[in-house]
Amino acid sequence: MKVSELIELLEEQDPDAEVLVMSQPNWPFELSLAGVTTREEMLRADREERDDDDEPRFERGTAKNDVFLVEGEQLRYGSKTAWSVATR
Question: So what's the pLDDT on residue 56?
Fold first, then answer.
């Protein structure tokens, strides 16, 4: 899914609603959302931690602008139905 597609889907939702993550279709859990980051931000932080000046190498099929929704706490059991009714 592209960022523009996610934004379009979220525009249809209540802007005051909580954003949660449903994970693991076979044993579903509802998770809070800890935040958002990019592959570039993570690689930059890793390089700074190692005091490394080498340019990062990206694995095939990845890009520095890949966006990650980072899961937070496990809140409760979820519903397997989420995958069949999810808007795509």
Answer: 67
How far, in Å, CA of 44 to CA of 53, rounded? 10
d(CA 42, CA 40): 5
> 80 vs 6, 35, 62, 69, CA distance in Å?
21, 24, 29, 20
Q: State which H helix or E strand residue 11 sits in.
A: helix 3-11
For residue 34 the two structure tokens come to 């800890």
DSSP-assigned letter for residue 17: S
Per-residue pLDDT of 26-53, as tens digits, reads 999 999 999 999 999 998 888 887 776 7
For the entire predicted model, the pTM comes to: 0.81
Location of structure tokens 């890009």: 63
Taking the C-alpha atoms of residue 10 and residue 1, their distance in angstroms, rounded to an integer, is 13
